[in-house]
Task: inverse folding
């Protein structure tokens, strides 16, 4: 029996395994070029004819052996014609069906005794395939695109394996080895141009997506930072009086509460003052002059206090200064210096009245210190304006 020998059994397993894998791949893998699919479809020829050879070997060893040879000759013919086509050729559609035509032709040649009559012709066919694929392989190696090289190499090695096979009419170890190498080359060709093509496309798209995500992430970070900067500017703007550039009432009170909460035992003096007879200035000289007086006082404030002191516009022509770590005596000296500066340098000429209160000597809470400094301010007004008054002296 033909398949009793180890070499023939190995050949059958080798052929059926690879051809079944290639043919199923052609049917299952949807994302692949037409040329690759047409190439893989051709392996149905040795798949079917090898199975038929195994089934008929019990009755006729000779016909079974001829089926094996014819199957690979038909495979070489079909796949060589496929490899001659350009990748996007419209003729490739024909090669989806041509394997079935060659399959029928192979069965006819095997069971009609035609192979024996035309054995020389088939030998010339094999040598022609050998030479053709060798030339195409060498030509491909000199081109930049070498994706077709494994296919030419596989067909060349298979054709080379058939030379000793047809000559000796038996399957030897060298034939098995060459066929195995040929199938491996075909596998590499199909993998690189189907799954390999898919994986490369996937990697390219994944890389593109990664770059896009990085770009989007960078843009999002940039936009978030821009929004944060804008929010900070808005926050600062909301805390800053638009006319004077000093802190608003809400902002200065918030800082006062925080300072007392953080350092409840540290002394803190508050100066509360306003422009004397400001209503008359507005009535007699107009609101523009009044605004000019407010801006002038704000400029004196910016140049008369320490870096750690905080100043704000409390409302209208009223201002407030926070003096951290400043006892009442020192606060009074600072207030007098400011009053004299305004009286001497202001243009138009104005004066200010100042009330001074010190935490925790005059008050124990932020609200109380504000109330105390306000009372001291009104005490200065009652004295005749243009003076500074300590809450402790009331």
Result:
């Amino acid at each position: 029996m033909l398949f009793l020998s180890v070499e023939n059994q190995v050949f059958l397993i080798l052929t059926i395994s690879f051809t079944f894998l290639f043919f199923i791949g052609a049917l299952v893998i949807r994302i692949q070029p037409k040329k690759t699919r047409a190439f893989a479809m051709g392996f149905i020829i040795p798949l079917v004819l090898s199975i038929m050879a195994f089934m008929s070997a019990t009755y006729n060893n000779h016909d079974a052996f001829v089926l094996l040879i014819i199957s690979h000759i038909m495979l070489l013919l079909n796949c060589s014609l496929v490899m001659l086509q350009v990748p996007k050729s419209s003729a490739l559609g024909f090669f989806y069906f041509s394997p079935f035509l060659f399959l029928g032709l192979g069965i006819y040649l095997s069971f009609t005794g035609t192979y024996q009559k035309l054995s020389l012709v088939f030998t010339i066919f094999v040598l022609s395939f050998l030479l053709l694929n060798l030339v195409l392989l060498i030509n491909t190696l000199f081109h930049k695109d070498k994706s077709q090289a494994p296919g030419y190499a596989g067909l060349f090695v298979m054709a080379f394996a058939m030379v000793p096979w047809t000559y000796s009419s038996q399957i030897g170890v060298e034939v098995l080895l060459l066929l195995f190498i040929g199938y491996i080359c075909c596998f590499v060709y199909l993998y690189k141009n189907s799954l390999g093509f898919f994986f490369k496309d996937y990697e390219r798209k994944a890389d593109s997506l990664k770059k896009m995500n990085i770009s989007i992430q960078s843009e999002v970070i940039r936009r978030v930072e821009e929004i944060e900067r804008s929010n900070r500017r808005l926050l600062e703007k909301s805390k800053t009086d638009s006319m004077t550039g000093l802190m608003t009432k809400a902002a200065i009170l918030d800082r006062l509460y925080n300072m007392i909460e953080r350092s409840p035992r540290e002394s803190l003096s508050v100066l509360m003052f306003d422009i004397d007879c400001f209503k008359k200035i507005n009535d007699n000289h107009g609101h523009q002059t009044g605004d000019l007086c407010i801006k002038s006082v704000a400029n004196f404030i910016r140049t008369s206090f320490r870096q750690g002191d905080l100043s704000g516009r409390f409302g209208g022509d009223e201002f407030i200064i926070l003096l951290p770590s400043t006892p009442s005596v020192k606060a009074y000296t600072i207030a007098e210096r400011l009053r004299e500066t305004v009286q001497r340098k202001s243009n138009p000429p104005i004066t200010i009245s100042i009330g001074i209160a010190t935490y925790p000597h005059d008050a124990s809470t932020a609200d109380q210190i504000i109330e105390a400094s306000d009372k001291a301010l009104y005490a200065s007004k009652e004295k005749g304006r243009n003076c500074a008054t300590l809450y402790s002296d009331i």
